Amino acid sequence: MSNVADARNFAKKKHAGQLRKNGKTTTFSHLKDVVKNLKKMKVTNKDTICAAWLHDTIEDTDTDFDSIKDRFGKNIADIVVSVTKDNRLPKKQREIKYAKDLKSSSTKAKIVKIADILANVNDAPNAGRNTQWEKQQFVKKSKYWSYVSSVKPGKLAELSWANNEWKRLQEKYS
Questions:
Q1: Which of 6, 47, 56, 60 is catalytic?
Q2: Is 134 a catalytic residue?
Q3: 86 is catalytic
Q4: What is the pTM of this model?
Q5: Which of 6, 33, 47, 59 is flagged as catalytic?
Q6: Does 25 have pLDDT greater than 80?
Q7: Which pLDDT band holds residue 1 (cuts at 50, 70, 90)?
């Protein structure tokens, strides 16, 4: 089994039965959307794709950095941890640390975060809330977008789709 298939299966098992904060979308469905977004950005790097499958495991399950490192390697674990909020910290400190982590994260981590942000904003209407709530979600994610969107991916990704998708979302929520 490839590392990517193993990461997918690991994430599926760890997130089994989990719903996102909206109470409607499964976490695994979100992970599939993130990986689809990477494909739209022409990402083929296996570590990046594995990290996309695993990016919510530390934050939302009993998985820790060491278990990802032991199973998938340090490179993948480093990507995952750099796009993970530290839930042990109070909310304000957590956000400050997360902003710092995103800004200083690797190119691969920033590419995963771009795919994640787009999946999150595109999923907002599925919550069945009002458009004001959706706009608030967009505004929250805009902050994170500003930390990662200037990444220079080189041959790792083609960001024109992501940038066009972000522009479309900006128009929708402006």
A1: 60
A2: no
A3: no
A4: 0.95
A5: 59
A6: yes
A7: low
